[in-house]
Amino acid sequence: MKATIRLTNSNIVYILDQTKLPFKEQYIIAKGSKRIIDAIEKLSIRGAPAIGVAGGFASYLALKESKNSNLEKIFQIISSKLDLIESARPTAVNLSWSVNRFRNILKLNRSKKIDFRHLLSLFRKEALKIYEEEKKVSLKLSSLGSKLIKNNDKIITHCNTGSLATTGPGTALGAIKFANKIRKGLRVFATETRPLLQGSRLTIWECQKNNIDCTLISDSMVSHIIKEEKINMIVVGADRIASNGDTANKIGTYQLAIAAKFHKIPFFVVAPISTFDFSCRNGLLIEIEERDGKELLSINNKIVSKANNVRNPAFDVTPRKLITGIITEKGIIYSPNANKIKRFKNRYS
Predict the structure, then answer these.
(1) Residue positions annotated with a catalytic role
(2) Helical H runs in the chain?
(3) Which domains does the chain have, with CATH numbers?
(4) What is the pLDDT of residues 163-221, one digit of tens each?
(5) What is the Cα–Cα distance from 187 to 184, expressed in whole angstroms?
(6) Can you say whether residue 253 is alpha, beta or left, with left for phi > 0 and alpha for psi between -120 and 50 degrees?
(7) Cβ–Cβ under 8 Å, residues 275 and 313
């Protein structure tokens, strides 16, 4: 499968435009940070880990285009640009996690007599390091998550959590991909994920490319499908996990967790440690991105509703009590709560 995002030796960032999929595989060519910010905002690139990588590349290009003879002036300019990158999508914590790594580089070198070229090399090295780290983490997540999946399991997944959302095989869908190679009779049911159809456009596309038996369902079918198909588990990704385990993910995740609880099937979140926001006490404090209502009023630019009032939150928060376990690259946190996550953080961070 083509790379979701990459940085070339000539300092050009190629982004697979996910708004064109599945019918057209087209790359956005970004030579500056503003083009990457635009791609993040328009969901040409999406998925928390991939957004973090994009934020890293944008940070590097932001410094590259800020060359100035006055180093102190450069620090001021780049600090402002990092704020702009971070604000592109407020809910996905991987973006701020990524940007903060470049803020730390500035903090460590501000008092030193460092020249622009050296600073630029530090930024480029860090951006590529984030890319490689996320790739390795994705592989570990996928391997660990796959061990929970058995022969003939029927699984529901939501939104897209595969290679398109990471720089590796994925998170929740990555676990399914790995399991599909070692298990027999695996069946996946992918929600369409309204309003932008990441499930029907992207997850189905990835499953077809990986020879996974995948059935498309509408978001409103979930409870019926759980009952009729005797679903074994639900696996999803995450965009921000609070320090008590409350998890923000694509809108519609919360109702899936409720349905799983009622039908007594496990509900797993698959996410890297970089998606934890240890400074956030609970889900009530997670900022939920509200997107343009026009996304609900039209399909493929064709107006389908004349509604005067529209709500379009991009994410919802699933309370920790509905989560069977959070699968990370360092292990699984079962029945997550503040104490367990604190011990987990102290052990691995």
Answers:
(1) 239
(2) 33-41, 48-64, 71-86, 93-109, 116-146, 172-182, 198, 204-209, 222-229, 253-263, 294-297, 338-348
(3) 5-139 (1.20.120.420), 141-348 (3.40.50.10470)
(4) 999 999 999 999 999 999 999 999 999 999 999 999 999 999 999 999 999 999 999 99
(5) 9
(6) alpha
(7) no
